[in-house]
Amino acid sequence: MDEARAREVLAQADVVDGTVGTAGTAGAAGAAELLALGENAVFAAGDLVVKVGRSIEHGGAELLDRARRELAIASYLADHDVPAVRAAKDEALLVDGHPVTVWHRIPAAVRPAEPRDLAELLGLVHALPVPTGFELPRRELLGGVERWLRLAGDAIDPADADYLRERRDGFAAAAAALTPHLPVGPIHGDALPRNVHIGPEGPVLVDLETFSSDLREHDLVVMALSRDRYGLPADAYDGFVSAYGWDVREWEGCAVLRGARETASCAWVSQHAPSNPKALAEFRRRVASLRDGDPAVRWYPF
């Protein structure tokens, strides 16, 4: 799905004039601001944000189910007063084969989000009961590894692909045997400061697609890995730990979840290798650091 196709779907959705459920126009859709283009095309239109998903012909019916679940999660968070994005329309639309969801636009950020802001929101999420009326999935952190490696194809060394598959299987089994320190329950699933928006009334949680019910430690390992691999300053990590109230690195299972996430991160980069030389170089750097058992080698975006 490219931007032009997403705008066609947006025009057909009839939600881009600022009022849900009233007729929009192709002109209004064309004037909408594209905020992101990835798994979804995300447009800002007046006081709304509209997410256009990939066609279910290419992604299967689970794409529509995922959109519906994201709306249910938003309602669940609202019921429990967790600051998060709010849906402007309770139903997911299916427009020319594409799932479309409509959200209230958040006011402009007053400052960048910091790790401590994320920790405060995670504290609220981790105190939530399991929702009723719909089921949260497990956090399938390693579920995309095979698909990403297949997309990489001949661009990567087959030995590296086999190595990551072996790591995936080993860490999946080890994770299944973990004894958690925290109660199992709702998690965000992609707990990074980029998924927190600091509006005039404080931090707001965004991007609910990875919301799951699993080990709460999944959300905390992300920041520990950010400290060790992605250059998060030690004082910023310490602020995260202080705001949350516990350092996941004290838990004996931390290395297992970290290893699983590192494996997934390497495989995710591999899919970009066929068309992006920088991604291929970064993939090789990451795999080499795993083979060498060096947990401090810096990883970079590409």
From TrEMBL:
Organism, scientific name: Streptomyces endophyticus
Pfam family, one: APH
Domain Aminoglycoside phosphotransferase: 47-253
Protein name per Swiss-Prot or TrEMBL: Aminoglycoside phosphotransferase family protein
Gene3D superfamilies: 3.90.1200.10
